[in-house]
Each structure stands twice: as C-alpha cells, then as structure tokens.
Amino acid sequence: MKRVGMFVWNHFTNDARVLRECTTLSQNGYDVELICIDDPNDPSISQYEEVNEHFRVFRMKRYPTTLLLLQKMYRFIVGKKWPILPALAVWGLFVLLIPWLTIALTVIVALLLKTKVRVIWVRAALILRMAIKGHRGNYDIYHSNDLNTMPQGWVSAKWRLKKKPLIYDSHEVQTSRTGYDSPWYKRFELFFINRMDSMIVENDTRAKYNEDLYGFYPHVLHNYPSLEIQQTEEKVNLHAMLGLPSDEKILLYQGGIQAGRGLEKLIEAYPLFNEGTLVYIGDGKIKEKLQQMVKERNLEDKIRFIPKVPVRDLPKYTKNAYLGFQVLNNINFNHWSASSNKLFEYMMNEVPVVACDFPEIKKVIEESEVGVTVDPHNPKEIAKGVNYILRNPDKRDLYSKNCKEARLQYNWELEQNNLLKVYQKY
Questions:
Q1: Strand 323-326 and strand 250-254: pairing?
Q2: How far apart are CA 158 and CA 166, in angstroms?
Q3: Up-side HSE of residue 190: CA atoms within 13 Å toward CB?
C-alpha cells in the first residue's frame, strides 16, 4: 500500500475538497496522512484525528513556543500583574549591567510581538514544522494543496537522495486572485512548477490559462460534491430556527462571507425582490459589514445570518431553500474562471440557482437548465433573475427536477476517477 503525505494550509474543519480527495485515496489502496494547522482557539479540534483506518490528520502547532512565552511575559507586565516600579527597576538594572544586550533584546521582543516580523516568524516556523513532519514521514507520494504548501511539499519530496513524486493541486488561480496581487506570486509559482511532477486544476478554463502561462495543460479535477454526503433524509427546520412561517420562501447564500462574492449586491437588490427572506449561512471577513448594511436599511427581519455549519451538516440546511445564490463578482481571473462548489451543492439538494454569467458556471446552468444567470454586478439584474423564478413556480419546479438529473453527472463519485488516474502514474 502506497503512503501519501498531503499538505493543506488550513485547520481542515470545513475543507470539503480535501476531505473528498483524502477519503477517495484511503478507500482505493492508499494510506493517507494529512498535515494541516492546529487552531488553539477551537477546543473542539485535536492535533491528531483518525478519519478512517487509512486516513489520519496531523495538525501542526500554530505558534512557536518562544513566541507564546514572550507574549505571556508581555501580558504579565503590561497587564499590571507585576507592579510597574519593580519591573522598571529590574529593567534598569539590566540596562546598567549589560546595556547593549538589554536594549537589543527589548527591540527584538517589540518587533516580534508587534510588527509584521511576528507574522513572518509564525508562518516560517509553521512551514518548517510541516516540512519536518512531511520529510520524516518518508511518504511514497507528496501532495500540496495550493501554493502556500508547495515549499513544504518540495522540501519533503525533493530534499532527499531518493526523490519522491510531488503533486501540485491548485484550487485557485494563484497568479490572479484576491490578496495575491504581488508579481512575486507568479515567480514563486513558476519556481515550483518547474520542480513538481503533476499539476491539478479545477476546470478547463483554468487549465487553458495555465497552458498559456506555463506551456502545459494540467490535469482537470472538478470540485463536485459527493452524492453520498449530500443525499441525506435529515433536514434542519430552518424556518422554525429563524421564526419564519413554514411557507416563507428562503433565498439562500451559503459559503464564505468574503469580498468579491457579490454579497453586498444581494443586500442592495433585496428591496426589489417580490418576496422571500434572504439568508446567509457562513462566516468571514465582511460579515459585520453586511450586517451593518442590513441594519442601516432596516431589513433585520428580512435578511438573516447564520454561522457556518460543518460540511456534513450543510445539506440539512440547504434543503430549506427556494433558490440559491452564486453571484461572484469579476474582480480577477480566479473568480471569472470559477466552477464553484456552491453551485453543485445547491444542485445536489434540488435547489434552483441564480448565478453569475461567467463561462464555467453559465455552461453548467444552461446545459442542465437548473436556474438563471445574471450580471452579478447589477442589483437590478439580480432582482430580475430572482423575480423570474418567484413569478414562475412551474419553471422553478422544472429547474428543481432538472437538478436530480444534473447531479448524476456532476458528482464526486464519477469525478474521483480523474484523481486516481493521476496517482496511478506513480
């Protein structure tokens, strides 16, 4: 049985794609160890987790021990747990005895605790811990999810006498995505592109982009959800949870509450909707901003927010929706080229969609007839799409019925074979 060392730069609590890939490999003759990041603020997750007999998770300690010690010392003094005069007296004594060393240490501590140096230190130490764990694992195949785990994969797979295969699984377009504006990301990716053995991307639009950029067409592995996980008879009574009448139409967005996903446009469009309650399920950086927008418009009763839920429980919420939204904005190539897992999650649960008219998403919706596409930057266009479905219940029922057929095509049970084909090369 071949052993796989896989890296991902998150806590592995809501990463459905990585969960599917690891589970598939573990059920098809591979022994998988996933190396990810611990979350000291979440007591519900542990540093070690055994998902099944051949799939284990190792979460690396997030913060260096030295940093934690320095933080405790800083809080001890600043928090006035130590009287300020004795503290100053001790510091002054050290300055008199070894002035340059004391001043230098003071500056270093200040930099480590209060500047970007701290961020670099934390990330570098974490990458090092992940790389050490991966290298010691001596796996037969290494698999890096996204660009931020390529250094770990490269060190683990290639810094040895007998080099091991390295797979680069790029979930996003690293050279054109939110937060990746520096030209260094392109140089960084190019460095590792020349040192990996196989590359995986999400769809053909991104594969063609990669071919134009680097001269080769990578493997395509669509981010389709699993029929097994999505097909559940259980259902959370979202109407009761939110205190809504049982016949109220829930207009649902589920996923990360992040910039560039058109979520502000939904709030701007809402007053133009003929009926329904807009519900957001998820968390993220702009959630407070959205809540403030809702408050300013006095729409608290009509636009609701629910925290993110575990991947396996999400379908129980999705089933409540009359329609679902996927209204990414065209802020970079990564968004414009997305296939979007949410689109297929709605489809799995027979929920018609109002979605952006970007190539990969539009292709699926029009070929399968599971919803409507709109200009996601225009609130009036979004409202037009919503109201079309609201005014035409027969059309809505047709879209929902078509979802049952479409999910037999767009599912992980079929798509996983493309992952196994990549691994069969090694």
A1: parallel
A2: 8
A3: 10
- Could you tell me how far CA 35 lies from the centroid of its own chain? 16
**Nearest alpha carbon to residue 337 among 163, 229, 213:** 213
The model's pLDDT over 5-62, given as tens digits with 9 standing for 90+, comes to: 999 999 998 888 999 999 999 999 999 999 999 988 888 889 999 999 999 999 998 8
Strand partners, 94: none
Measured CA to CA, the distance from residue 375 to residue 380 in angstroms comes to 9
Residues forming CATH 3.40.50.2000 domain(s) in the chain: 2-63+119-223+417-423, 227-410
Residues 6+ apart with CB under 8 A from 404: 350
* CB atoms near residue 215 (< 10 Å): 8
Q: Does the 2-63+119-223+417-423 domain belong in CATH 3.40.50.2000?
A: yes
Are 323 and 371 in contact by the 8 Å Cβ rule? The answer is yes
d(CA 273, CA 88): 64
Q: How many CB atoms lie within 10 A of CB 275?
A: 13
Question: Is residue 174 a contact partner of residue 187, using CB atoms and an 8 Å limit?
Answer: no
Angle at 237 between CA 235 and CA 242, to 5 degrees: 145
Q: Which CATH architecture has domain 227-410?
A: 3-Layer(aba) Sandwich (3.40)
**Tens of pLDDT along 306-340?**
999 888 889 999 999 999 999 999 999 999 999 88
Could you give the C-alpha distances from 129 to 66, 133, 256, in angstroms and in order?
Answer: 14, 6, 28
Residue with tokens 């037969």, as numbered in its chain: 140
Contacts of 237 (CB under 8 A, 6+ apart): 320
